[in-house]
């Protein structure tokens, strides 16, 4: 394959919460893709697996230490390409960003793009790819405008919902876009219809694989498991409400809710647990490293993913923990949000319930616990589906094909 030397831009890399991106990059590299990772921020050194620690050394980072390079690059480009430079500086910062955090990320990304454009030219980069459609894609777009190197980006979940102030421009300017679920395609095409032909769907690759003979325990007290960042799209407060219903009905269970997040959403979850008197039933172990997650999946009876669409439009795509749970042949209850129905087909590969509905969550949990044969059948069908849809070899070939089509003409 003729593959372009590609700069892969992220905010941070590697991140323990972005194992799907880590696997995408590492699998493609192992298959011959010349990826060079650049980050807009500094190093995130906590909770990294040994493999992530080894990969971290090859990353080129900006962050606070990159400020002098950014300042120099602004002057350098202002002299060489004054019209483009002043056009970017006068337009991008004043877009209608969804909040101050998003504005800050994108303004820094724009400034970082000036430094990256110089670095890409020096490093012989032939293509630029952003791993997310928000700040990283803004940096890629700016660097492309300045350097003339084409760019593409990935569109996933909260990076496109709600759309940032420059998403439509990035869709128009990109050479190609790939998204990890089918639900995003129509949405992106509705924003910029002329970009529809550039959008390609490629699923993430499985990051954990379970055993073929994994047990489905289904013995009281039933062990429920939920995993995710404590944030506005996970809907864990509705799961806590469902647990209160289960307790009132005398259902024997315990819930392990794995994850961490910002202080406010974490406090909301803890208050909900206390208000319902569930501290003896619900356990919050905090962050658990990815290489230990298989133990938790193997020990659980039912996995629950109560994702919601936030009033801003923010939402999950297909949470990777759903695929991991099914890979371990663990029965799943999930909400019918965004791309989740592509994996959880109600009554076929799991049980699907409406979002923000504790009653429906509680009923689905009790239905699985009360019918082990059904739970086993759904989990087995789900395991088969995720191993096919999220097969690393298949999806890595699709990633390589995506970039091969973007190779410079003289290399084709």
Describe this protein's structure:
The chain is an alpha/beta fold and 412 residues long. Helices cover 44% and strands 14% of the residues. It has 15 helices and 13 strands. The strands form 2 sheets. Strands 3-2-1-4-5-6-7 form a 7-stranded parallel sheet, sandwiched between helices. A 6-stranded parallel sheet has the order 10-9-8-11-12-13, sandwiched between helices. β6 (176-179), α8 (183-191) and β7 (199-201) form a beta-alpha-beta unit. α9 (236-248) crosses α13 (358-369) and α12 (320-327) packs across α14 (372-389).
Topology:
Layout: E1 6-10, H1 19-30, E2 35-39, H2 50-56, E3 60-61, H3 67-80, H4 82-91, H5 100-123, E4 127-130, H6 135-147, E5 151-155, H7 167-173, E6 176-179, H8 183-191, E7 199-201, E8 222-227, H9 236-248, E9 253-258, H10 263-275, E10 282-286, H11 293-299, E11 302-305, H12 320-327, E12 332-335, E13 351-353, H13 358-369, H14 372-389, H15 392-404
Parallel strand pairs: 1-2, 1-4, 2-3, 4-5, 5-6, 6-7, 8-9, 8-11, 9-10, 11-12, 12-13
């Amino acid at each position: 394959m003729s593959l372009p030397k590609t700069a892969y831009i992220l905010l941070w890399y590697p991140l323990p919460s972005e194992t799907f991106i880590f696997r995408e990059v590492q699998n493609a590299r192992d298959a011959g893709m010349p990826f060079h990772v650049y980050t807009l921020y500094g190093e995130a050194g906590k909770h990294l697996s040994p493999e992530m620690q080894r990969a971290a050394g090859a990353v080129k980072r900006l962050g606070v230490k990159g400020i002098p390079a950014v300042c120099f690059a602004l002057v350098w480009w202002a002299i060489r390409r004054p019209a483009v430079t002043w056009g970017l500086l006068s337009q991008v910062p004043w877009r209608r960003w969804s909040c101050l955090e998003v504005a800050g990320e994108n303004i820094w990304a724009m400034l970082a793009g000036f430094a990256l454009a110089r670095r890409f030219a020096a490093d012989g980069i032939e293509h630029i790819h952003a791993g997310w459609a928000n700040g990283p894609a803004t940096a890629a777009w700016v660097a492309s405008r300045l350097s003339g190197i084409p760019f593409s980006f990935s569109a996933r979940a909260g990076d496109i919902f709600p759309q940032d102030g420059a998403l439509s421009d990035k869709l128009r300017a990109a050479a190609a876009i790939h998204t990890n679920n089918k639900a995003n395609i129509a949405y992106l095409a509705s924003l910029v219809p002329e970009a529809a032909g550039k959008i390609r769907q490629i699923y993430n690759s499985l990051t954990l694989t379970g055993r073929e003979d994994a047990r489905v325990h289904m013995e009281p007290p039933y062990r429920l498991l939920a995993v995710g960042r404590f944030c506005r799209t996970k809907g864990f407060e509705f799961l806590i409400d469902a647990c209160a219903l289960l307790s009132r009905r005398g259902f024997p269970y315990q819930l392990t809710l794995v994850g961490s997040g910002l202080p406010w959403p974490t406090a909301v979850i803890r208050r909900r647990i206390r208000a319902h008197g569930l501290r003896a039933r619900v356990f919050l172990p905090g962050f658990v490293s990815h290489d230990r997650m298989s133990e938790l999946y193997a020990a659980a009876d039912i996995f629950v993913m109560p994702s919601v669409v936030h009033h801003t439009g923010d939402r999950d795509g297909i949470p990777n923990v759903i695929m991991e749970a099914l890979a371990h042949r663990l029965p799943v209850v999930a909400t019918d949000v965004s791309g989740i129905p592509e994996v959880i087909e109600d009554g076929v590969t799991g049980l699907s319930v409406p979002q923000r509905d504790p009653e429906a969550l509680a009923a689905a949990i009790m239905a699985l616990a009360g019918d082990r044969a059904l739970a086993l059948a759904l989990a087995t069908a789900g395991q088969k589906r995720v191993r096919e849809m999220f097969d690393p070899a298949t999806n890595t070939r699709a990633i390589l094909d995506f970039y091969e089509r973007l190779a410079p003409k003289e290399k084709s």
